[in-house]
Amino acid sequence: MRQWLVGWVVLNGGCLDMNPVFIDPTEGDEVGETTSLPPATDSVATTEPPDSTSPTSTTTTMTSMTSMTTMTSMTTVTSTSETSMPDTEGTLGPVTEGSSTTEPMPYPTCGDGVLDPGEQCDDNNLYPYDACTDSCMEAFCGDFVVEDNVEQCDDGKNGMEDDGCLDDCTLPVCGDGIWDMTEECDFGDNEDEDGCEHDCRETEKIIFVSSKLSNGKMGGLLGADEACNMLAMTAENGPLPGTYMAWLSTDDESPVTRMSPSEYRYVRSDRTIIVESWTELVNGTPFAPIDLNEHGKKHPGVNPIPVGCGWSAVHTNTLVSGKGYMLDTDCGGWNSESGETLAGSIALGEVGWTQHCESMDCATFAPIYCVQQAPL
């Protein structure tokens, strides 16, 4: 046993002597300093081997192995500390050989207060409603973002002045001469008695004769109403205000049952007075013939001219009282080209404007009257 232990100590002492790098923490050497192992002494080679049953010998052997393990571990740390690794968080920085620290350089980011390529501005925040947006672009009228204390609205500068936001990113106001959805009218003045009050409340309603012609197949009353509103919206001088219904009757409905009458006067599209009220419209005689279309132009009439009705014929099937004419004279509820109907004349006043020709063929292409409705 003694010979075996001596051989083991000498062998391991030789291994330690061959290893060029060790750390001696008691001497205060820096990491990476080279220290030579002292040569083995005779006392080590002649040390009496401990008795295998002795606790003291076991402790001595474990202590020697632990010291060797510690030195090996510290040597490994020294080796790995000589190379600096890149930052693992996605930042970039120089890697310096022999240094264990790096100086990270962040990627360019909008909102970091630094004007980077591709940015028009960078005010060190991501607030979207100031002069520099959250995409680091300069705010402008038409970008769909309402800039604080600068714009009142921003609809993308879409070229529409009647949608509640003007093209200069301001809100429309009564009296600016621009009619929008929040107003009944706007003549650009503060005068009353001109059909539009100073508070942009309308005091007159428009009746026009449609520039387009149709036979009796109109898609019913709703189809005729839709045609009136489309024509009003596409008027050459700008959209006409309000909503419109066709002056037509069926067996079940008529202007007096389905329209919203106004207490104010009715005018043509050129603002010429027709009558002073709904009551006069259904009971009196119009002051002026209803012969102007939505564009403010005189209607050319019907061609070919329907037999017995003349060039000025217009579909109505409605009496001067605003009630329907007769049963089965409504061109199948205005869904058919078959049958006959009552026609008016755009060239006449009195009763003739709505009931002039009693038997116009439903296949005839003729205009219709469109009447603006009062707000409910």
Number of strands: 8
Task: Assign the CATH topology of one domain.
Answer: Mannose-Binding Protein A, Chain A
Query: By CATH's scheme, which homologous superfamily of one domain applies?
Result: Mannose-Binding Protein A, subunit A
Low-confidence spans: pLDDT under 50, at least 5 residues? 4-93
How much of the sequence lies in strands comes to 5-15%
Query: Helix and strand succession?
Result: HHHEHEHEEHEHEEE
CATH class group of one domain: Alpha Beta
Specify the number of helices.
7
Average pLDDT metric: 76
Strand order of the largest sheet: 2-8-1-3-4
Describe the oligomeric state of these chains in a short phrase: single chain
SS class: alpha+beta
Report Rg: 49 Å
How much helicity do the residues have? 10-25%
Major beta-sheet overview = 5 strands, mixed
* CATH architecture field of one domain: Roll
- Measured between the Cα atoms of the first and last residue, the distance is 118 Å
Structural summary, described in words:
This protein is α+β, with helices and mostly antiparallel strands. Among the domains are: 2-75, no CATH class; 204-372, Mannose-Binding Protein A, subunit A (Mannose-Binding Protein A, Chain A), CATH 3.10.100.10. 20% of the residues lie in helices and 9% in strands. It has helices at residues 2-18, 42-45, 55-80, 220-233, 255-258, 278-283, 331-334; strands at 204-209, 244-246, 265-267, 273-275, 313-315, 340-345, 357-361, 369-372. It has a five-stranded mixed beta sheet with strand order 2-8-1-3-4. A three-stranded antiparallel beta sheet has the order 5-6-7, with no helix packed on it. A hairpin with a 5-residue loop joins strand 3 (265-267) and strand 4. The longest helix is centred in the first third of the chain and has 26 residues, at 55-80. The N and C termini lie far apart (118 Å). Mean pLDDT is 76; it is low at 4-93.
